[in-house]
Amino acid sequence: MAEFDVLAGQVGNWGRWGVDDQRGTLNLVTPEVVRRGTAAVVTGETFSLAMPLSLDGPQNGVGVRGRINPVRTMLAINTPMGPGPDAAAYSDDIVVTPTQAATHWDALSHCSHRGLMYNGVPADAVDAFGAARLGIDTAGPIVSRGILLDVARHQGVDVLPGGFPVTRSVLEAVEEAQGTPVEEGDIVLVRTGQASYFLAGDVPRYRRPVPALDFDAPLFFHARGAAAAAIDNMPMELLPSKAEDVMLPVHVLCLVMMGMVQGQNWVLEELAAACARDRRHTFLLDATPEPFLHSTGGLVNPVAVR
Predict the structure, then answer these.
(1) How far is 268 from 283, CA to CA, in rounded Å?
(2) What angle do CA 161, 301, 201 make, to 5 degrees?
(3) Distance (Å, rounded) from C-alpha 126 to C-alpha 137?
C-alpha cells in the first residue's frame, strides 16, 4: 500500500484543470492535437475497433455481477402504418445492455477509492439515479491522434501469454522500438493480441487468463500526457493484482487519481496488421461514446483512420 500511495501521488491530477473539472486528461486534447491527428491520415483506410453487440459477447453476468451481453429483440416487424396495401410498414428494435458490455469506455464515475472519485468528488455522487457528476456524457467528443503500442508484436508473438505483465518499462520499450513517441493529448491503444481469441469464437479463453497492464503502467500514461488509453482485453489490468488491498490499482490510478478514461474490449487485430505493414503506428481516432446521461460507462464504436 505504501508503494501504491506513492504512485497515486505521482500521477494525481486533482485540481489541475479546476475544482469543478469533470473531463480530466481529455482536457489535453486541444485543437492543435486534433490537427496533429488529422495529419496522421495518409492512405484514408478506416478500421472499426469495436466488437459486435450481441448475445455472443464476452460478458456472462458472473465475472462482474449482472453485466450481461446486449439483449436485442423486436418491437415491431413490418407493421403497417395505415390501412390499405400501399401503406408503409416499419420495423423497430429494442436493446437492453450494460454500458460496459462489449467495446466501451469506463467513465470517471466508474470507480472510487477511499470514498472519493476523480477531483475529490464524493463517491455518493453515484446513486440509484446514476452519476450526478463524472458521467460519460461529461466526456464530450473524444477525437485525437491515436497511437498503437503493439506489445505482442514487439515480443515476437501473436498473443502474449496469460498473466504477462505490461509494465511501464515494457510500454517504453515498445514505444522506442516503433520509433514514434507518445505525445501529449494522444490516445494510447495497447495490443496484447488477446482479442484474437474472441474473434476465433473462444470466449472463455478470451476472458481468462489475460495479459494486461501492471500497476505501474499508469506512470507511463501520466509521463507522456496521454488523454486516454484502451486495451484489447476485458479487465484492463492484471488479475489478481500485485496490490492486493486495492484489487484494481490501474482503475484507481487512471480513473480516480489521473482522471483518465480507459477503454476495454477493443479489437485491434486488423489495425495492428496495417500498422505493421508500413511501420506507421499513428492515426486519427474518433472514439466518442454514446452520451448516456449519468452513465458510468459508454458504449463506443472507435474508428481509426490511417
Answers:
(1) 13
(2) 40
(3) 14
Helix locations, the chain, DSSP H: 2-11, 31-39, 151-154, 168-178, 195-199, 203-207, 217-224, 249-251, 269-278
The pLDDT tens digits along the chain (306 residues) read 888 999 999 999 999 999 999 999 999 999 999 999 999 999 999 999 999 999 999 998 887 888 999 999 999 999 999 999 999 999 999 999 999 999 999 999 999 999 999 999 999 999 999 999 999 999 999 999 999 999 999 999 999 999 999 999 999 999 999 999 999 999 999 999 999 999 999 999 999 899 999 999 999 999 999 999 999 999 999 998 877 788 899 999 999 999 999 999 999 999 999 999 999 999 999 999 999 999 999 999 999 999
Where b means 16+ CB within 10 Å and e means fewer, 172-190 reads: bebbeebebebeebbbbbb
Give the separation between CA 105 and CA 7, rounded to whole angstroms.
Answer: 23
Q: CA 54 to CA 82: how far, in whole Å?
A: 32
Q: Which three cell numbers stand for residue 173?
A: 520499450
SS3 content of the chain, % helix, strand, coil (to 5): 30, 20, 50
Residue type present at position 208: R
Compute the distance between CA of residue 178 and CA of residue 149 in angstroms, rounded to an integer: 8
> How many Cβ atoms are within 10 Å of 120's Cβ, its own excluded?
10
d(CA 251, CA 235) in angstroms, rounded, equals: 9
